[in-house]
Amino acid sequence: MISQNEADILIGLPKKANGDESYKFPYPGNLLTIPIISVDEKEKFVLDINRGSIRLSKCTYQERYQEYIILARLDIDGPPHNNPDVENVPLLLLDNYNGEVIKCPHMHLYVEGYMDKWAIPISDDEFPNTKSLFSTLQDFFRYCNVINPPKIWSETLDEL
Predict the structure, then answer these.
(1) What is the C-alpha separation between 71 and 116, in angstroms, rounded?
(2) 81 Cβ partners below 8 Å, 6+ apart?
(3) CB 22 within 8 A of CB 151
(4) Which residues on neighbouring strands pair with residue 47, listed in sequence order?
């Protein structure tokens, strides 16, 4: 586990694609995992794109550190999330969401001691068009500070 300060620093680090490889946006029911690295090439991350198989609009974008630490996860058109109900909320940002059910779309955040057990509603300013999976992916790259994102393509623009 890492500290909250470390997680905040890692999310804020400028990142880039780890090489020139291009990736095909996954079909419904599939997962794509893409390596990304910090611009200074000292830290390694993984970006996951996980498509729903029944509800085609369901998608999860996730940034991980050290393979298993989820720093941020954006859930699109999935089930609502039940936040922990605690006496002392670990982050001021979570104060209004203690014990609340958060509808999709929502963002899971790394919270020290809780990993990704907390979610907050997303901002329309940061994610204005969640109906477009491609547009939302670009917004997620910005959220995670991926300033030089990997190349991602699709056979049909309808998928995105």
Answers:
(1) 7
(2) 75, 101, 102, 104, 106, 108, 119
(3) yes
(4) 34, 63
CB 41 within 8 A of CB 58: no
8 Å CB contact between 74 and 116:
no
What pLDDT is recorded for position 13? 98
CA–CA gap between residue 126 and residue 31 (Å, rounded) = 24
Give SS3 for 5: helix
Sequence-separated (6 or more) residues with CB below 8 Å from residue 39: 13, 14, 15, 16, 147, 148
Instruction: Give CA–CA dist 58/76, Å, rounded.
Output: 5
- What Å distances lie between residue 16 and 88, 143, 151, CA to CA? 36, 13, 11
Report pLDDT for 156.
Answer: 62
pLDDT along the chain (160 residues), means of 10: 96 96 94 97 97 91 96 97 97 97 98 97 96 94 97 69
Concatenating the DSSP letter of every residue in 94-118 gives GGGGTT-EEPSSEEEEEETTTEEEE
